[in-house]
Every structure is written in C-alpha cells, then in structure tokens.
Amino acid sequence: MPAKILISACLLGRPVRYDGKGKPLHHPAIDKWMAEDRLIAFCPEQAGGLPTPRPPAEVELGLTGEDVLAGRARVLEITGGDVTAEFIAGAERAVAFARGHDCGFALLIDGSPSCGSGFIYDGSFSSRRHPGAGVTAALMRAAGIRVYSDREVEALAAVVAAAQ
Ligand code: SF4
C-alpha cells in the first residue's frame, strides 16, 4: 500500500478557509500523489465544528499550538470569540483521521493557527508572524506523524519516494 499523506483540504482547492476560499498548491508531486491515491484531504477547523466562512483566528499572545494544547493559550477570533475548544477538537479529529487512513505524513499549509508548522501569526491580527506550529500540526507531531509545510513539498516528495 502506498504511503498516505493527510493534506490540508484547502491545498487541494477545497473552499474551506475562513474566507470561504481554497488555496490550491500547484506542484507535479501533488498531481502524482493524486494519481497514486495517496492524498487524504482534511480540514481541522471544519472538523472541529467551525462554519465556513468564519472570522480569522490566531493563537493569542505570540504563543503556539503547543501552548494551546498545554492549556497555556487560547485561540481567539478577530471578533473576540474563543474558539480554543473547536481548534483542539479539530486537531484531535485530524490525528484520528490520519491514523484511520494510515497516514504517516501530513502536508499542511503554513501560517494557519491549525495547520501552520513553520510559522503562525502572533495573535495581534497585524500580519506579524513568528516561528511555531498551529494546534493541529503540533498534535500531529506529538502523535508521530511527520509534518511538512506547503513550502517543503520537495522534501516530502523525496521522503515518500525513498519510503517506496
Ligand atoms: S484549518 Fe487547515 S485545512 Fe482548514 S482551511 Fe485552515 S489551513 Fe486549510
């Protein structure tokens, strides 16, 4: 069975982002993995019960997804709503979904308070980024799933090819 990859649904163009749009990643590896039936699309925020569209949200106070999982930070919408519980539920469902589909890898879009793995925004809603992971990427890593960002698709392609 080929190595399966859980992919942020928005990277396949699914209109699941907070603004009701997708953000498709165009790369030959994506086309190849689609043809090989390796990709399992998932949106943690929708799975956590949030609607689409929804207000943008960030991890507060320059903290990270790990801090959210440890109870040290909340995820807040720009409108002030506390969506911490939905983000944690979505992360838990993402890990369960990945395990259920034998996904050893995840390809997640960077910058998202859920899917970000290299950077996220600092909670001030002023486009300031800092190194760190979102809630789902952090929980996936803790679960042993190898997480790659959309900027690391070449590296993931090399690892997947070597695993065959
Ligand atoms: S939670 Fe992840 S998959 Fe869903 S819209 Fe945000 S970045 Fe895309």
Architecture overview:
The chain has 164 residues and is of the alpha/beta class. The chain has one domain. The protein has six helices and eight strands. It has helices at 28-35, 44-47, 65-69, 84-100, 135-142, 153-162; strands spanning 4-8, 39-42, 57-59, 75-77, 103-108, 119-121, 129-131, 146-149. The strands form three sheets. A four-stranded parallel β-sheet has the order 2-1-5-8, sandwiched between helices. Helix 1 (28-35) links the parallel strand 1 and strand 2. Helix 4 (84-100) packs across helix 5 (135-142). The termini are close together. 44% of the residues are buried. It binds iron/sulfur cluster (SF4). Residues 8-10, 16-17, 43-45, 109, 112, 114-115 line the site of iron/sulfur cluster.
